[in-house]
Give the backbone structure.
Amino acid sequence: MSDVRAWRAALVHCLDDPGRAGPDAVVHHADGLLLVEDGHVAACGAWADLSPTLAADVPVETLPGRLLSPGFIDTHIHFPQIDMIAAYSGQLLDWLHEKTFPAERAFADRAHADAAAQAFLDELLRNGTTTAMVFGSVHRASIDALFEVALARNMRLIAGKSLMDQGPYGLKDTVASGRDETEGLIRDWSRRGRLGYAVTPRFALSSSPEQLAAAGEILRAYEHVWMQTHLAENPYEVAAVARAFPEAVDYLDVYDRFGLVTDRSVFAHCIHTTDRALHRMSEAGAAISHCPTSNLFLGSGLFDLARAQAHGVAVGLGTDVGAGTTFSMLGTAAAACNVAQMKGAPLDPLRAFWLATRGGARALGLEDRIGSFTAGCEADFVALDTAATPLLARRLAGVSDIREILFALMVLGDDRVVADAWLAGVRAHRRD
């Protein structure tokens, strides 16, 4: 017997990238109907058009004053950094040694990881994020804990333990242990429920050539897994990588030499990339996670979104907590608009919304499963409250243009805007 449910509210989702396909790629129904069957979208459209086709026994939840959106997709975030978000320090390399690495050492303890995993997923859902690509610490326990909680919630999550045979004390594996733990995690967790695994060399400086080679071998051996890492985030990091790998043409080439640049690869930041590297990423089908709040917080630089997309590279948005300053993908989208203004290439709010939803799905190679209300997609969605704060209520009173509504939610919104979140059609968060 099928489980069929319906929701009546305003609806918005993207059919394609509005920056390329135009504003008609964004579908908005001021009075809409979302029909879900067995955890998947069955139909989405105007209430007037679809309601007459509903069977009499289908329950309809009416949500006045709410805007239903596909759940947000965070393409880069660090689970072990939840406890040191907003930690003041210098730029990237100093910040890692002074703040990040001490916090991550605690994740050797499974009890600590278990408690953090619950809080981490609570925070994602509170902010409307229903899918995330996540870095764990170097400890296997961090990923076992995270996957266990995500599986219990039926949440779509891609994650991996960091590979760091060149890491500092307490955050160091070996080529052999890193391989064994990674392959064990893939066997134990990948494709259970809606879980996916990402081979995760932290960044080029944290792994020896031998470990990077092992990561490439694992990626080739398991065709259903992803690869995630950092690329060209900070000028000092880029210079250090050039010294460590003098044979490489550029930073991306370090990874490419080990078979890590593929259509399953997601590179975070990519601020200081070469045109050659962007062309190679496009050629390989690799994607970028744009992390604007983190880049601003650490003074890493301003990512040139227009340049990356001119090369044809898929781009999603990442909060990059804990260097990122918010779990909110709405706030992250607003920061992306601000950075684009600074680069002289304004980012339309409709496209920013696409990046946070279907664009993120495309970057992860999951566009056929998540990120929109297209029939057959998994029913991960959120209810946004356009009057969540007195200022938002005042700003949006009488506003009907979806571009204006979305931009105000990005600029003025936070977790209070997310009234509800559903995973596969089942409510997983309720603000009240």
In short: The two ends are 32 Å apart (CA to CA).
